[in-house]
């Protein structure tokens, strides 16, 4: 069931997943490949994903996510991490830049990126979290466009998940996203009101 583009905004955090419905691996791949078109600073794509699918891994994650039941009920929960050091030399994006903009262009961009995203702890965190946040939204809309429901979570033990799921170095957990299908036997509370243009935009 494909959802037309404007209907992807009907996405909800569905809270109750049908534990009897699996998410096909091919569909998960399609969601991630679509979502990976998300923009990122200098196209550095400072993100990684762990797809938690096995009962054992789900139990471990459940314990590190305030026992939120959806972790056990959803067929897959993604751990999204952002790499606070992904502006470094070893990012393959710099080779792409060299090939397309020459050595000087790539070196200038690298210098700018390491200042903008690496010169303070606050900048490093902003770099990792803002970019990975865009990937997160892209995943939820990509999922909705393919008829798959989602639920983001940050009521979690970030450090515990980092350690127990083996995230190394400056890779930090940004959020979890459960993916699957709404349990039609449950009732979801109605969508909460949103601030709209008049309330949230100031014209300067
Ligand atoms: C970054 C982020 C973290 C969230 N963390 C949780 C969470 O840990 N548990 C939970 O039940 N809902 C969580 N939510 C879901 C929000 O409560 C939900 O998105 C919001 O109430 C709006 O509802 P809707 O997504 O259905 O439109 C989170 C949402 C976001 C964007």
UniProtKB/TrEMBL annotation:
UniProt keyword ATP-binding present: no
InterPro entries per record: Nitroreductase, Nitroreductase-like
Pfam families: Nitroreductase (PF00881)
Keyword field contains Metal-binding: no
Cofactor: FMN
Keyword vocabulary terms for this entry: Flavoprotein, FMN, Oxidoreductase
Residue span, Nitroreductase domain: 9-181
GO MF, one annotated term: oxidoreductase activity
Family under the similarity heading: Belongs to the nitroreductase family.
Stated name of the protein: Nitroreductase family protein
């Amino acid at each position: 069931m494909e959802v037309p583009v404007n209907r992807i905004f009907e996405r909800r955090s569905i809270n109750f997943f049908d534990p009897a419905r699996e998410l096909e691996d091919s569909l998960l791949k399609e969601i991630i490949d679509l979502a990976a078109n998300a923009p990122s600073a200098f196209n550095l794509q400072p993100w990684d994903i762990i797809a938690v699918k096995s009962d054992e891994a789900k139990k471990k994650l459940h314990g590190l996510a305030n026992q939120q039941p959806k972790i056990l009920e959803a067929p897959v929960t993604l751990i999204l991490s952002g790499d606070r050091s992904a502006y470094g030399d070893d990012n393959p994006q710099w080779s792409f830049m060299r090939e397309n903009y020459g050595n000087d262009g790539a070196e200038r961009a690298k210098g700018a990126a390491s200042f903008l995203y690496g010169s303070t702890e606050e900048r490093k965190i902003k770099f990792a979290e803002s970019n990975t946040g865009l990937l997160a939204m892209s995943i939820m809309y990509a999922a909705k466009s393919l008829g798959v429901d989602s639920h983001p979570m940050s009521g979690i033990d970030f450090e515990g998940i980092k350690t127990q799921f083996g995230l190394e170095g400056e890779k930090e957990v940004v959020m979890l996203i459960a993916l699957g299908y709404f349990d039609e036997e449950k009732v979801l509370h109605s969508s909460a009101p949103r601030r709209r243009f008049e309330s949230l935009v100031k014209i300067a």
